[in-house]
Queue: 3 jobs
Job 1
Amino acid sequence: MSDRGVKSAGAMVQGAKSRIQNLDPDQVAKELESGEALLVDVRDAPEREEHGAIPGALHIPRGMLEFRADAGTPYHNSELRPDRRIILACASGGRSALATDLLQEMGYKNVANLAGGFKAWQESGLPVDKV
């Protein structure tokens, strides 16, 4: 058993959010417009099919992120590089906060979280694609 103690999912998300960069939808939109940032959507496929997706977002389900981000696995996605600007998004910002924190642990230096997630993106009136 770990000596780190037991934490709730909410406590884990709050801890992650305190260690990462959290961007509002307008900040993310500006970074995406510049063409230098890669947006990674960590939601499950049914969520994307039901609600749509942010245009241009790369879909990597949360459960596969570590393997897609690790160049030493056969599942690696070459779009993911430790030196690249990567912004992560989920439905409301919790899973993507955990994912952003995880990528930092894996040596990714320039990562951020879409605060409020896809829901905040939609509420800001930003474009959504059907999947």
Job 2
Amino acid sequence: MRKEQVLDLIGLAARLILGVVLIIAGAVKIPNPQLSSRAVQAYEILPYDLAGTVGIVLPYIEVFVGVLLVLGIFTRFAAIISTLLMIAFVIGISQAWARGLQIDCGCFGGGGALAAGEEPSYLVDLLRDAGLVLLGAWLIWRPRSLASLDRRLFGNA
């Protein structure tokens, strides 16, 4: 296998992993916007009403960007948005951990304050999101990948 083929295969894997994670994360939150809003509000970063609105809108953005990545269309744009989202999630989780907040990240539904005695999974969440940042960074640097609509529509994109 040539170097270019290997790099294209890595791009495909990065696109699919990041895209599927975003689709799942968004899709599980869409049916319950109040819970999604509560998850964002629990971070205590944004004003309460703004956090509620972000919680309602964010799942749709996650699904939209995830679909772009899975299809491989506008890959660099989708990678930039997904990477910025993941960096925001890393910052949010880090500040919650540093401030001693006892919350569920709300990454895949749920969210808000944890029950007494329940421990947050901040380290696992941070490691996962850091890995997703790396996948997004790869796609920003090299958006070309196998089985992408970018290739079909725009040539060697």
Job 3
Amino acid sequence: MIVGILGGIASGKSTVIGLIAERTNGLIINADQLAHQVLEQPQVIASLVNQFGADIVAADKTVDRKRLGSLVFGDTDICRQNKIFLEQLIHPKVRSKIEAAITVSQNDDPKRLILLDIPLLLESGWKDRCDELLFIDTLWTIRQENAARRGWSEEELAKRERTQMSIESKRAAATVVILNHGTLLELASEIENLTSQWQSAGLVQSN
């Protein structure tokens, strides 16, 4: 079974995915990690330098992701154009890596749960690849606290959120909703109930 994770930015997706994987021996495919690998490719770095200038590369010769984020997350036409350029450069390479990871997992262990942690899962067309779409319903105040731990202001969180599909659209697309309004223990209990249902139905393995 392939499960796609949906939710707003800083909603606790990584925590939920970790809890599910822990209980099912699920494989986590993290698009951000794969995107970081893609950003290390020489031809990708060359394309970014050509588009944004040499200062897109940090002193250690890697892409300055903070600067790159400042160029693509915003409400201006230039930011939107930069975002389109970056997505066209990065997304096909990341998609190939995700598909390769799915193929390897399904060949090695067809019954293993696969968890897709893809920030733009719906926007990038992964919906039809998933057997379940799990939405994490998290209060805005909690998301602000989570974002603050990343060093983001409320304004930065809102700016990044506006570049994605709305929370309402994500929730409407979901087949399962997990509430993340309380403690970690309460969240773990919700995950335990969900994975137990999947295991009872023979959809996933027990760890």
